[in-house]
Predict the 3D structure of the following.
Amino acid sequence: MKKTIIRKITLTAILTILVIIFTKVLSIQNPPFPIPPFVRISIGPALIIFASIYLGPFFGALVGVLSDVLGWVAFNFSGLSFSPLITIIYLFLGILPWVINRVLTKISFMKIDKTIFIILLLFMNLYLGFFFVSEDSFMVQGIVYNLNITLKIVLFCASILISILTYVVTYLIDKKYHHNTFQVAIVTLISEILLMVILGSYIKAFFFGASFFFVLVSQILVLFINVPLNTFMVSLLQYLLQKRRKTIK
């Protein structure tokens, strides 16, 4: 029992350090090509989701909270004030995946996992289509930007293409590791929709003075990249730990 706790504490510390590194140092944010300042592509959330599924909600929440707080202390070069709301998001990111995974494990889910995943992707594309039809402009930091019909079509077609690629990549990962990959993908997708996309968009819209719906659309587009990336990382870590256990035995 003591060895198990010590192992979990050790892994919690390692994962916390890795989340900080991948979120604050190795993430894609404010790159040379133009993307909104509130967009971040990182595998940091994948490590928190893995901690939640593998270590449980307590240690998952610990990884989420410590990585956000310590990351802000160590890398707050811009002088931005600390936001407990962001910490709350990371706290629940360490809890919610464990809850969703337990629920999906208890029900007869494997027969319809691919169908559910496709439905979730279609739902997000329907929202994007609604946004592009109903909105002609958006605001970021007090500046209004117009959306012409060509840009709307390009962005919507890109979202559909990325959705297809998201499914294909997830399918290939499932073929490679055979470790409930679509369940992991759905856990990741639901967790990020609720926390990073919906709740996170409210917070980022407030801090950056941007239109909520534009932030929401931006987060959904990034989600199409983060979901296969996070699914790959969680599946890979589960596969490596499972392989290590077999080697030890």
Notes: Strands lie at 137-140, 143-146. Residues 19 and 44 are 5 Å apart (CA to CA).
